[in-house]
Design brief:
single chain, EC 2.3.2.26, ubl conjugation pathway, HECT-type E3 ubiquitin transferase, transferase, HECTD1/TRIP12-like
Length: 168
């Protein structure tokens, strides 16, 4: 009880807590913590930026948008946590995410090594995992050969990469 009273007193010094009584608990949760519902499949492409080798029509992007549209609510939260660092989007959803969610083509580690060795590029994207820069809402996505491989790699990354800087 003492901790709650200390929190209330501290909060009240910054913002008159009585002013919050006009909101329901659900409205406060929404305003302070963001949306629980994540996105609608039909509007995904409208709120995502594609760059560095990808466009909205790229096969990998078409697959990604289909996969994102098929995610369960728990998978959407895990994906959002993986890419942005937060399990919820801000009030207004993807449309107001700042910076905008950006998907870029990730060169395979083998291709990068081969080109630096002078052996020429060797695309083995199916061996690589997607990576992120959460501070910029930036997803680096390899051009996987199939939607199924992309789905498995995304699920692995979003589940195993939570709270880790290994996939940055």
């Amino acid at each position: 009880m003492r901790q709650i009273e200390a929190f209330r007193a501290g909060f009240n010094q910054v913002f008159d807590i009585s002013s919050l009584q006009i909101f329901t608990p659900e409205e406060l949760d929404y305003l302070l913590c963001g949306r629980r519902e994540m996105w609608k499949t039909e509007t995904l492409a409208d709120h995502i930026k594609f760059d560095h080798g990808y466009t909205a029509k790229s096969p990998a992007i078409v697959n990604l948008l289909e996969i994102m549209g098929e995610f369960t609510p728990d998978q959407q939260r895990a994906f959002c946590q993986f890419v942005t660092g937060a399990p919820r989007l801000p009030p207004g959803g993807l449309a107001v995410l700042n910076p905008k969610l950006t998907i870029v083509r990730k060169l395979s580690s083998t291709a990068a090594n081969a080109s630096s060795n002078g052996n020429g590029p060797s695309e083995t994207a199916d061996d690589d995992l997607p990576s992120v820069m959460t501070c910029a809402n930036y997803l680096k996505l390899p051009p996987y050969s199939t939607k199924e491989i992309m789905y498995k790699k995304l699920l692995y990354a979003i589940n195993e990469g939570q709270g880790s800087f290994d996939l940055s």
